[in-house]
Structures are given as structure tokens and as C-alpha cells.
Design goal:
- Helix 3 (31-48) crosses helix 14.
- The protein has helices at 2-15, 19-29, 31-48, 50-53, 152-188, 190-205, 208-216, 225-238, 241-255, 259-266, 271-307, 319-329, 333-336, 342-365, and strands at residues 74-77, 80-86, 89-93, 100-104, 110-111, 113-123, 126-134.
- Helices cover 60% and strands 12% of the residues.
């Protein structure tokens, strides 16, 4: 008797959860998905307030510090414990190879301050010069500098605004086109369905990289950086909607044949009402999961174009542009300036985080998963 009562209570407790609560419980059980979510949350938070976290402007050149290695953070100086500080870097010449190289000047510790004043920037439309950290009388490059002496950390943080938002904007464009075209194709059928499907087949028959390269040349070279950015997003979105339209068509074909959709049509409901009230809600979970898994493709696409010199141009920056400097350095980068590879690590980290997050969302949206 006690077993039966306890099982009934468990069933009642399980039934009391809504679908969203059950999905959230399934999502929390996927540890990699949760980790991916928090990594992405931190990345987008840093990108939103990039000017505050970046100690320098992306175009500021420190000509006295080209290709400077990252400066470490220390807590002990002359045997005594101190607040976080760093040592300035000085250039010396190797007595054997006569090659210039950097070394720490351990006679001059410089304290790392929080909330320091520096270069002016726009923070959500407000001009300010407050930065999270910095050195009052000196320079601090936590991830080193590039060949022009520009702070790699600042450029990487600001560059994340382009690399991380290109996927969001691209998804909004491609999903809008894909949902509309796929929905019309599946709901109305007939010659409209045939015409749209032939169009999607033509688009899907082109290999992705060649069409990216071809369409990128259409963008005029003298366009401002903002226009080039929008042009890249448009190119990526244009070639990304066809596959989604095919899937949406199949889902709409399935949804319009169920009983409640047929009942709504029999009662005289308009096509728009049927689509918005009965068909679109059935696509929500699939679209959310697909969007989270499609964004990495946009990040990689923008990075590839920028790496090849066909994407975003200076003075804007992105992870692809930063990684392009590795191409100029050749294999010597691995031994002489390995910190220039850090933007590539950010690309890998963001793509993995999106994939883990998307897989967790897919599992959470699976109503057949047991809790």
C-alpha cells in the first residue's frame, strides 16, 4: 500500500510541472550544456561592455612595444606579499643571436589598479573614460601586443562584438526568410511549393566556401567598415536559409494535418490565425535548438572571410582579423609570438560552447526524455 501511495504522489508531483519546467530540469542535468551556457553568458557580457573591460582603444599603437609578450600578474616582490602588480617589459639584445627580445624589469613593480581613468569610449551611448583595470603610470598588456604595438586583449574583447553578433543578426535574417518561405511552401503547396523547393535546391547545390568568396567580392572595397560588416552578414544569411526552409516545410505539412488544425479551418479561422496560433507554436522548440546550433557556422564563416582578407576591414576588428596576423608570421608564430593564437582559441571555445548549449537544448526539448 505504501509503495502505491508513494508512486501516486510521485506521479502527481511530476504532472504538476509545466512543459517549460520539465525542459529546464532536463537542461540542468546536461552539465556540458550548462557550462556552455555560462561561457556564452560571460562572452556576451564582456562584448556588451567591451570598452569598460578593454584598457586601451583598438586603434591605439604603442610603437615602443611591438610584439610584446603578455605581462604576468605577481603578488610577491623582494620576499614580501603585495597587492597584484606587474613588471614592465624592457627590450634587450641576445648576446649570442643579437636578436631583440623582451624581459621583465623586476626593479620597478607597477600596481594594477581597478577602475582607472584612460581613453574615452562609448558605453551604451554614454561617453566615459572609466576602465576596469590598468596602470596609472605605465602600460599593461595582459595578452601582449601585435606587430603595431596594439593591445591584443583590448582588440580581442572589442572584436568579440563582431564575431559574436554576426551569428545573432545572421540568424534573425536567415530564419525570417527560411520560416516564411518554408511556411508558405508547406501550407499552400501546389505550384508555389514546387517553385520554392526548386529555388532552395539551387541554393543548396552551391558549395558554401566558393559562394562566400564570390559574393564577398560583390561588396565594394571602398565601403565603410559598418557597411562591410552588414554585407558579410547578408551574404552569410542569404546562403543559410535554404536548408531551414526545407525542414520548416516538412514540419508545417505535418502540423496542418493534425485534428486541431483541421478543426480550426472547418470553423472558418483565417490562414494567418491558423499559422500563428496552431502551427508556429509547434515549431518553437525546433527553431530555438536549430538557431543555437547554427550560430557557430556564422562565427566560423565570418572568421574565415576575415582571415582571408575578404571580411571586416580595419578600423573594425574581429577574431578572424586578429588571427590573420598568424598567417603573416608563418610557423615562426608558434615559437616567437604564440600569444597571437589566442583569438583562434576564442573561436574554438565559442563554437564548442554553442554546440554544447545547443545539444542540451535539443535534449531538453525532447518530450520523450525521462526525468
Amino acid at each position: 500500500m505504501s509503495v502505491a501511495v508513494s508512486s501516486d504522489v510521485a506521479v502527481q508531483e511530476k504532472v504538476s510541472y509545466s512543459l517549460w519546467q520539465l525542459a529546464l530540469r532536463r537542461f540542468k542535468k546536461n552539465r556540458l550544456g550548462v557550462v556552455g551556457f555560462w561561457i556564452l553568458a560571460v562572452m556576451y557580457f564582456l562584448a556588451l561592455f567591451a570598452g569598460f573591460f578593454a584598457p586601451y582603444a583598438i586603434e591605439t599603437q604603442h610603437v615602443e612595444s611591438p610584439l610584446q609578450p603578455p605581462q604576468g600578474i605577481h603578488l610577491v616582490h623582494d620576499g614580501g606579499l603585495r597587492l597584484p602588480f606587474t613588471y614592465p617589459m624592457k627590450i634587450e639584445r641576445d648576446p649570442v643571436t643579437f636578436e631583440k627580445k623582451y624581459s621583465e624589469d623586476k626593479t620597478n613593480p607597477q600596481a594594477i589598479r581597478l577602475f582607472v581613468r584612460g581613453e574615452t569610449y562609448n558605453l551604451l551611448g554614454i561617453k566615459t573614460d572609466l576602465h576596469l583595470f590598468g596602470i596609472e603610470n605605465g602600460k599593461y598588456f595582459p595578452l601582449g601586443t601585435d606587430k603595431l604595438g596594439r593591445c591584443l586583449f583590448s582588440r580581442m574583447i572589442v572584436g568579440s562584438q563582431v564575431s559574436l553578433t554576426v551569428g545573432i543578426i545572421g540568424i534573425l535574417i536567415s530564419f525570417t526568410i527560411g520560416i516564411i518561405m518554408g511556411g508558405i511552401s508547406g501550407y499552400y503547396g501546389g505550384w508555389v511549393d514546387m517553385l520554392i523547393q526548386r529555388l532552395t535546391e539551387v541554393l543548396m547545390s552551391f558549395p558554401r566556401l566558393p559562394i562566400l568568396l564570390a559574393l564577398s567580392y560583390v561588396i565594394p572595397a571602398n565601403w565603410p567598415s559598418t557597411y562591410v560588416y552588414l554585407g558579410i552578414v547578408a551574404v552569410l544569411a542569404f546562403i543559410g536559409w535554404a536548408g531551414l526552409a526545407r525542414v520548416v516545410r516538412g514540419l508545417v505539412l505535418s502540423a496542418k494535418s493534425v485534428d486541431y488544425t483541421q478543426a480550426a479551418k472547418a470553423l472558418g479561422a483565417s490562414d494567418l490565425r491558423i499559422i500563428l496560433r496552431h502551427i508556429v507554436p509547434n515549431l518553437t522548440s525546433y527553431l530555438i535548438v536549430t538557431a543555437s546550433l547554427a550560430i557557430p557556422g556564422y562565427i566560423l564563416g565570418e572568421s574565415a572571410l576575415s582571415f582571408l582578407g575578404l571580411g571586416v576591414k580595419e578600423p573594425m576588428t574581429s577574431w578572424g582579423i586578429l588571427l590573420a596576423e598568424v598567417r603573416e608570421g608563418g610557423f615562426g608564430v608558434l615559437t616567437r609570438t604564440p600569444w597571437l593564437l589566442i583569438p583562434g582559441g576564442m573561436i574554438i571555445l565559442s563554437v564548442l560552447a554553442f554546440n554544447f548549449f545547443g545539444d542540451a537544448l535539443r535534449d531538453a526539448a525532447d518530450t520523450q526524455t525521462r526525468n
